[in-house]
Amino acid sequence: MKITPSKVNWFMLLKLPLGFLSGMRIKTITETAAIVKIKHRWMNQNPFKSMFWAAQGMAAEMSTAVLVMQAIEVSKLKVSMLVTHQEANFYKKATGTIFFTCSSGKEITNAIQKSKQTKEGQEIVLIAEGKNQDGVVVSKFSFQWSLKVK
């Protein structure tokens, strides 16, 4: 199955309903980058009238995960994937629409190839940067993924 924004968004509706209900949507996916958007709404806000950190984390993680899923699909290998560590920094209040971008597609492909060659799991750190409509960075998430070719 080719990974496309509409297919992933439908997948979310069926398998990740909280992500879908929060307003999280895949905007674009290429071999090297993915952009996920999420709107500040009543459902995902905190008491301070900005987006709850967990809603931001969900969208940030999706921007990395969809790139991993695509790299696995392109490789035609069976690969296990697991987030093993996560860190985040918050810089501004997240209001309006936030766009999380991960641009590490090539690193993911390299990690899968290295796992295939070595028969060992590979750890890779993927960064998702969240910007508001004005291009101001509101948060930055770091996800450590473990990838292992089965």
Notes on the protein architecture:
By secondary structure, the protein is of the alpha+beta class. The chain has a single domain, classed as Thiol Ester Dehydrase, Chain A, CATH 3.10.129. The protein contains 4 helices and 6 strands. The protein has a 6-stranded antiparallel beta sheet with strand order 1-2-4-5-6-3. A hairpin with a 4-residue loop joins strand 1 and strand 2 (34-39). Helix 3 packs across helix 4.
Strands, helices and their partners?
Elements: H1 5-15, H2 17-21, E1 25-29, E2 34-39, H3 53-75, E3 79-90, E4 97-102, H4 105-118, E5 122-131, E6 137-149
Helix pairs in contact: 3-4
List the keywords.
150 residues, alpha+beta, Thiol Ester Dehydrase, Chain A, 6-stranded antiparallel β-sheet, 4 helices, 6 strands, 35% helix, globular
> Helix coverage percent of residues?
25-40%
Overall 3D geometry? globular
Strand order of the largest sheet: 1-2-4-5-6-3
How large is the count of helical segments? Answer: 4
Which band does the percent of strand residues land in? Answer: 25-35%
* CATH homologous superfamily title: Hotdog Thioesterase
Q: Helices and strands: which structural class?
A: alpha+beta
Q: Mean pLDDT across all residues, rounded?
A: 94
Radius of gyration: 15 Å
pLDDT under 50 segments (min length 5)? none
Q: Say what the CATH topology is.
A: Thiol Ester Dehydrase, Chain A
Number of domains as seen in the coordinates? 1
Overview in brief:
The chain has 150 residues and is of the alpha+beta class.
